[in-house]
Design goal:
Helices cover 7% and strands 46% of the residues. The protein is mainly beta and 173 residues long. The chain contains 1 helix and 12 strands. Strands 5-6-7-8-9-10-11-12 form an 8-stranded antiparallel barrel.
Length: 173
């Protein structure tokens, strides 16, 4: 019989609650011989999404490569140039943040030399149970400078970081 295991189980992606792990109790009714079963619940991989400046503006698409190391998020973002005066098609940004369970918090900072502002933009959202979609709000440190909704959808969990770096390098040309 499968029953929720105690919350004491952890994996390389951080502490999980009892709903994240299942165990097969041994004949004696204890979990010393437990077999844990869980889906991977992290942000690793390639994500595509959009953000808007308000509910009235057109969505701005973006792509993010995210590395989730025990809840520490790092990565890269590529989006079309919708505001820089420079004659470039795409803007690149760095992503840095945290994940605690399904709660996601990261900042996006545009790379220098693109004619974009250097203010970090804060994204706060929540992943669905299967870590397929993240929905939330973005804002500047002072929300009066801009804010709006965003959504991310997992594109791939298995794409290699090397392939993605090649894609970003090609976009730089």
């Amino acid at each position: 019989m499968f029953t929720p295991a105690a919350a004491k189980y952890e994996n390389v992606h951080g502490a999980l609650d009892a709903s994240d792990r299942l165990c097969d109790q041994g004949a004696g009714g204890n979990d010393k011989d437990a077999i844990t079963v869980a889906s991977v619940r992290d942000m690793n991989g390639l994500w595509s999404g959009w953000y808007t400046y308000s509910t009235l503006s057109e969505p701005v698409p973006f792509t993010a490569w995210i590395d989730d190391s025990a809840g520490l998020l790092t990565g890269s973002i590529l989006e079309p140039n919708t505001f820089s005066a420079m004659d470039i098609d795409d803007l690149q940004a760095e992503l840095a943040g945290t994940r605690l369970g399904q709660q996601i918090h990261f900042s996006k900072t545009y790379a220098a030399g693109q004619g974009a502002h250097e203010k970090p933009i804060i994204y706060e959202g929540r992943a669905d149970e299967d870590f397929i979609t993240v929905r939330g709000q973005w804002s500047f440190a002072d929300p009066r400078d801009g804010k709006g909704p965003f959504e991310l959808s997992r594109s791939s969990k298995s794409i290699s970081e090397g392939i993605l770096r090649d894609v970003f390098a090609f976009a730089d040309r």
